[in-house]
Design a protein that fits this description.
The protein is of the alpha+beta class and 103 residues long. It has a domain of 72 residues. Helix content is 29%, strand content 18%. It has 3 helices and 4 strands, in the order E-H-E-E-H-H-E. It has a 4-stranded mixed beta sheet with strand order 1-4-3-2. A hairpin with a 2-residue loop joins strand 2 and strand 3. The chain starts with 11 loop residues before the first strand and ends in a 14-residue tail after the last strand.
Length: 103
Amino acid sequence: MVKPVEYEIEKVLVLSTGHVTLEDSHRLDLKDRANVIVHDYEHGWYIWVGSDEPFSDQLLRARAEGYSAAFCNLMTLAHSLGCSYLKLDCDGPLREDLPKFDW
């Protein structure tokens, strides 16, 4: 009998870039980010929220780097839903229950 292959599958919370401030978007675009793991792509960013370290430490580093409370709340939401990444996409869903920013 052949043993079934186990796949590692990660969850991603997808939201609109309209849920981050202009200042946060500038920080996400920086190439020398030290405290937040971000992978940018053509339409936005993937932010790692599935760290092995305590999540509270990850949030403290994000705040120390200057990210807004709204951004940190998005990270917290993704983490609380069991996601490994928060994906902010220019065409992602804009939720009524989250703050919105026009820029």
